[in-house]
Amino acid sequence: MRTSTSKNEILLNAYSADCFKKEAQKVIDIIANELENIQTNGLQNTIDRKLPEEQLAFWSEEFASTGSTSLSQLSEKIMEHSIHFHSKGYMGHQVAVTLPVTALTSALIGYMNNCTTVYELGMAGNAMEKVVISHMAEKYGYDKGATGFVASGGSMGNLTALVTARTSSGVEEKDYHRLAIMVSEEAHYSVERAAKIMGIASENIIKIPTDKSFAIRTDLLESYYEKAVADGKTVFCVIGCACTTSVGAHDNLEQIGTFAEKHNIGFHVDGAHGGAAIFSEKYKYLLKGIERSDSLIVDFHKMMMTPPLSTAVIYNAGHRKINEFSPKAAYLWQDQLSEEWWNSAKHTLECTKPLTIIHTYAIMRLYGDEIYRQNVDTLYDLGKEFAELIKEEPDMELAIDPCSNIVCFRYVPDHGNINETNKIIAEELLKDGTYYTTSTAIRGEFYLRVTLMNPLTDTEELTGLLQKIREAANKHNNPE
Ligand SMILES: Cc1ncc(COP(=O)(O)O)c(C=O)c1O
Q: Domains in the chain, start-ordered, CATH in brackets?
């Protein structure tokens, strides 16, 4: 016997197609209006930074209010209290300025709620992952038969690839305590964290120094390897950065490949950010040698314009021993040892994993690879243009010539402490909110850092930022 309608009124209304349709239209309008406003009304605030306590007070009050609300009303409040990535002044972290179409694919993902765990729960998604991964593997020059899947983020991707490299190394479990990896001192922290999660001792995470452009010193690989072996360590993987997070440096993948082949050890590339350069005729030279790696990751949610978390984990054919996890789960599959790409959870750390592949599949089908080429070329060119502008300014200094859209630089004051001045500038920029930039420490020195992620950002915003920096410095030097 079903319960009466009135008893479940809220629940039934929440599932009503009519209610959904009305609210959906309003939320879409809010998004479209912001996009239009950003593109037609010039640069406005990218961030209106409130103190965490103020933000908490606002939401606590909102949450406690007894009046009814709608999703569209909530959306307006949420957007008002959040950073605007689509603003031309957004030049902060490596978070994608999402393609508007992904707001719609997000809705589809949320509604369908398919997942890739086992075939039946995500039939289209599991196949779409395979198609997209094969397409990308070919781009990277991997051998026919390359495999892979989508993981929930670069950190998860690095961990998954390292676990696979360990399985593929053939080292027996009783010798796991000897295992070591070699990686640039500039690598993203997720690599070290992945190794620690795998139980690799800190002293077995061998950090290789970098050169003046912050790329791994490949001339040191041999001596560090010999020392590791002499110390009784078993190096099973070397990791190349494409590119590093802090300054955007690219390791020489060709030379790392030669080293890995010589010692018959795994070679993984962290291309979370810069892996997308493969789509650019102009910039793919930065990835030369990537075809020699055993595995790589690239984040769709960075340079490939999707919402997070969506990362391609790709294995070259031939070197990967499958069944990295060989999970026993009689309720999911009968044979834990076979590959069965369509049962994705056999190979991922996640059990339930959303179909984020729908974003990338749709982008590829709607716009083709050409959209990635345009995005990479535009943003990397913008990085170079910004670097040239900085070079022309006598009171500005570049950390290094950028090879991507990550640019680190600082203001050089006439007098006073350069680090302190730049810290104050960074704070002032945040308070002002027209631009959102970040900062980093480079060999102990404080630098301003931008990642040009918005393809709509133009010369006007670049010069505008330099102007703001100078204003902030003047305000600091000549307080009223
Ligand atoms: C080079 C690199 N690898 C890995 C990651 C981690 O990626 P995620 O944030 O998707 O976990 C990042 C994040 O910025 C990165 O820059």
A: 108-368 (3.40.640.10), 371-477 (3.90.1150.10)
Instruction: Report yes or no: 451 and 438 within 8 Å, Cβ to Cβ.
Output: yes
Ligand 1 atom, smallest distance to 156 CA: 11
Name the residue with the closest Cα to ligand 1, atom 7.
154
Question: Ligand 1 centre and the CA of 281: distance in Å?
Answer: 24
Q: Using CB atoms within 10 A of its CB, is residue 226 exposed (0-12), middle (13-18) or buried (19+)?
A: exposed
pLDDT value at residue 321: 66
Give this prediction's pTM. Answer: 0.94
183-194 CB burial, b ≥16 within 10 A, e <16 = bbebbbebbbeb
Mean pLDDT of the chain: 93
What burial letters (b/e) apply to 27-54, b meaning 16+ CB within 10 Å? Answer: beebeeeeeeebeeeebeebbeeeeeee
Tell me, using a 6 A CB cutoff, whether residue 448 lines ligand 1: no
Pocket test of ligand 1: the residue of 156, 244, 273 to mutate, having most ligand atoms within 8 Å of its CB, is 273
Verify whether ligand 1 is closer than 6 Å to residue 218 (CB atom): no
> What's 38-71 look like in SS3?
HHHCCCCCCCCCCCHHHHHHHHHHHHHCCCCCCH
pLDDT of residue 162: 96
| Ligand 1 pocket residue status of 299, Cβ below 6 Å | yes
pLDDT per position as a tens digit, 402-432:
999 999 999 999 888 999 999 999 999 999 9
CA of 391 from ligand 1 middle (Å) equals 29
The pLDDT value given to residue 336: 62
Contact, 92 vs 50, CB < 8 A? Answer: no
Q: How far is CA 162 from CA 54, 83, 182, 193, 296, in A?
A: 42, 34, 12, 11, 10
What's the gap in Å between 311 CA and the centre of ligand 1? 10
Could you tell me if the CB of 309 is within 6 A of ligand 1?
yes
